[in-house]
Amino acid sequence: MARLAQRNITDVVRTGEPKVGLLSNNVLDTFLRISKQVASEAATTFYGNNTFEFDNIGNMEVFLTGIGSMRKHLRYLRVAQGGYTFSKARPTFTLLKDATSLRTLTFDHNVICQRKKDVVADLKTSFKHLYKIQEQQKQDVKTGGSDVLDIIKIGWSSEKCTHCSALPKKNGCPRFLDCEFDCDGGSAHSEEVLAEAKAMLAKSIGAAE
Predict the structure, then answer these.
(1) Is the dihedral of CA 177, 178, 184, 185 positive or negative?
(2) Which residue has the higher pLDDT, 105 or 5?
């Protein structure tokens, strides 16, 4: 049953964490129907070994609601460029309180850079809950520290985009709207922005040292 479902959704999600399938309006309903065919014993592998990318936050909410208790197996989630809807983000991310296996939640650079304060506010409830769970787990096995903040990622490719390849001397890049960065300086800038967002989130959820 699980193998049959896996074959039927090759246009939706690709097996293996590094590969991404985009869950948009035209495939989300089909995906959720097929997800019900996945045997419970295969759920850990199916939801844990795939990256689920969403073209908008609304579809992410439909997906997280639709899979119910299977949220606990999710590891890799991604919001596509231009897909962050601030009016829907907070209730959607609240559903991630159950995603106790979550390892990465990846956003486009421009969302984190331009509105990191709003993103942190949207993530606060779920990440505070995940932080408490992870801290308890670490105490149980007598290890220190917390890696919940490392869940937040900025999607990045080291290859130059078409814009910067054609116009290497021109500031600005579609990847870095309003930042006036190009692909050459974008990596270091993204790391800076991510560090700032993590520091804000740490303070918000009580994880700051």
Answers:
(1) negative
(2) 105
Query: Long-range contacts: 175-178, Cβ < 8 Å, 24+?
Result: 175/109, 175/110, 176/109, 176/110, 176/113, 177/110, 177/114, 178/110, 178/113, 178/114
Please report whether residue 167 resides in a domain. no
Instruction: Indicate whether 32 belongs to any domain.
Output: yes
How confident is the model at residue 150, as a pLDDT? 93
Report residue 152's pLDDT band, with 50, 70 and 90 as the boundaries. Answer: very high
The CATH number of the domain holding residue 75 is 3.80.10
What is the secondary structure of 120-164 as a DSSP string?
HHHHHHHHHHHHHHHHHHHHHTT-----GGGGEEE---SSPPHHH
Q: What pTM was computed for the model?
A: 0.76
pLDDT confidence band for 36 (50 / 70 / 90):
low
> Kind and range of the H or E element at 78?
strand 76-79
Answer whether 32's CB lies under 8 Å from 66's CB. yes
Residue 186 lies in a domain: no
Please give the Cα distance from 180 to 204 (Å, whole number): 29
Q: How many CB atoms lie within 10 A of CB 184?
A: 11
Is the CB of residue 54 less than 8 Å from the CB of residue 80? yes
Residue 179 forms part of a structural domain: no
Quote the domain boundaries for residue 10: 2-159+191-205
Cα–Cα dist 1/38, whole Å: 6
